[in-house]
Amino acid sequence: MKRRSFCGLLCVLPGAALWAQPASFRFDGENYIQQFVGAPPSGDRVVEFVRPTENLNNWTRLVGLRFQQMPFLDNDPVAAALQLERVVMKANPQARTSVMSNETKTDATIDFLTWSADQAGMEFNVFRYVKSPDGRGLVSLQVAHRFQASEPQVAEKLRATRMSWVRQVVEHDMGAVTQAVMARR
Q1: 3-state SS of the chain?
Q2: pLDDT tens column, 156-185
Q3: Cα-based angle 147, 153, 158 (whole degrees, multiple of 5)
């Protein structure tokens, strides 16, 4: 696969400018090091982290924090998750997706598994969306894992990873994510 994941392509921010952000992020017992920060003039923001031994060209695990203005979706977390599901399914009609939300629909999570055309490279993602405190956008947390379909016991590993990652993302403090991506607004 190329540098950017399928989801990374969805969230590329043209005209990105660099700005100071947390240099590391901890998820699933691992530390991730900041590799990319973008803040285009529109006001959207993205911060991406990878494992210390990886970079944006060869990552196997990535954490992304975003602030995105989505007025065409009324900055609705559930609508954003469903829109991402549509994009994933359009790119790969056999992809496996799951969308969940809380009772008040102020918080939505999507996880999905997709793969390259040759089905050798696979990517699992979990995104969680919440409305920003000012209501002018959405804040999201993304965790992604790239792997080869030929890896030993890949199905068993993916099942365990999925259950754990979805739980961790749903339980993650989105206030900290919000603070990280809106610090320089």
Answers
A1: CCCCCHHHHHCCCCCCCCCCCCCEEEECCEEEEEEEEECCCCCCEEEEEECCCCCCCCCCEEEEEEEECCHHHCCCHHHHHHHHHHHHHHHCCCCEEEEEECCCCCEEEEEEEEECCCCCEEEEEEEEEEECCCCCCEEEEEEEEEEECCCCCHHHHHHHHHHHHHHHHHHCCHHHHHHHHHCCC
A2: 889 889 999 999 999 999 999 999 998 754
A3: 55
Provide the residue ranges of all domains of the chain, joining segments of one domain with +: 6-182
pLDDT tens for 19-47 read: 444 689 999 999 999 999 998 888 999 99
Contact call for residues 147 and 154 (beta carbons, < 8 A): yes
Q: Which CATH architecture has domain 6-182?
A: 3-Layer(aba) Sandwich (3.40)
Encoded tokens for 157? 């590993």
Which tens digit of pLDDT belongs to each residue from 73-130? 999 999 999 999 999 999 999 999 999 999 999 999 999 999 988 888 999 999 999 9
How high is the mean pLDDT of the chain? Answer: 87
**Distances in Å between the alpha carbon of 154 and those of 94, 141, 146, 162?**
18, 24, 11, 12
CB atoms within 10 A of CB 121: 17
Please tell me the predicted confidence (pLDDT) of residue 184. 53
